[in-house]
Amino acid sequence: MDAVRESGHPIAGREALDPQFVERQRARLEDMRRMLLRAHAGIEEEEREWSESSQYARPDAEDVAARILAGEVDTALDQAIMRRLALIQRALEKVGEGSYGVCDDTGEPIPRGRLEAVPEAIYTLEAQKARERKRG
Predict the structure, then answer these.
(1) Tens place of pLDDT per residue across the chain (136 aa)
(2) What is the three-class DSSP state of 127?
(3) How many Cα neighbours within 13 Å face the side chain of 97?
């Protein structure tokens, strides 16, 4: 869906996303992806180090409890990282397709302000809320 009609005028209610804005967003998305991949790798490395260190020393009950708690936190954090990475990947695909800024559910334009705040947004706020309600 293009933000400009055949006549060359923007569609009512939609500010056209200029190529410079889309390019800045692409760069932001790539930076975010690199940062999240580093965080994911750090979590994996921490788990590997704990696993290796526990082979050689018998941790006491407090260490085990702390590690279990830290592992649960790391798991939840890593799941959030992976969900966000999937959104970033989809947003980058949309940049390549020329559909960045168009809601994947409704085909409606995503407001520029939302894209500035959440570059990986692939849904309008209304569509995002509807998806969250369905998940319960």
Answers:
(1) 444 333 333 443 456 799 999 999 999 999 999 999 999 999 888 888 777 766 666 777 887 788 788 889 889 999 999 999 999 999 999 999 999 999 999 999 999 999 999 999 999 999 999 999 998 7
(2) helix
(3) 14
Q: Which two tokens stand for residue 33?
A: 């992806």
Domains and CATH numbers, the chain: 19-135 (1.20.120.910)
> Phi and psi for 117 in degrees, rounded to 5?
-75, -35
Q: What is the pTM assigned to this prediction?
A: 0.76
Give 116's contacts (C-beta < 8 A, 6+ positions apart).
none
List of residues 6+ apart from 37 with CB closer than 8 A: 85
